[in-house]
TrEMBL record:
Listed name of the protein: Sugar-binding protein
Species per Swiss-Prot/TrEMBL record: Pseudomonas putida
Superkingdom of source: Bacteria
Length: 99
């Protein structure tokens, strides 16, 4: 795109999307040529081809003044259950709440 962000979607052998990644310019130095690739989301499927789980990733920068310069990766996973007719009947969020 205009901000030089490259988005890649990976598919499995059945052409289902399983992962998306974005490559962007390093946030701490926009004029740098350093590029960072980050995973945006991942999906898994059950044996019937339904989405079993979906994980979204968030990236938190290191705290200012910290000795650790690595960013923290937060993975937020939702899991799904289906009824006998194949309709999604339950979603369990990362915090354990079921919808």
């Amino acid at each position: 795109d205009v901000n030089k962000v490259v988005t890649r979607t990976y598919h499995d052998g059945l052409n289902r999307p399983v992962r998306e990644e974005r490559t962007l310019v390093a946030l701490d130095d926009p004029k740098s040529s350093t590029r960072i690739t980050r995973k945006v989301w991942e999906k898994t499927y059950d044996t019937r081809g339904r989405v079993d789980s979906e994980t979204r990733f968030d990236y938190l920068p290191a705290a200012p003044g910290s000795d650790n310069t690595d960013e923290q990766v937060i993975a937020l996973t939702s899991r799904y259950r289906y009824d006998a007719w194949g309709h999604r009947c339950e979603e369990q969020k990362t915090d354990g709440v079921k919808l």
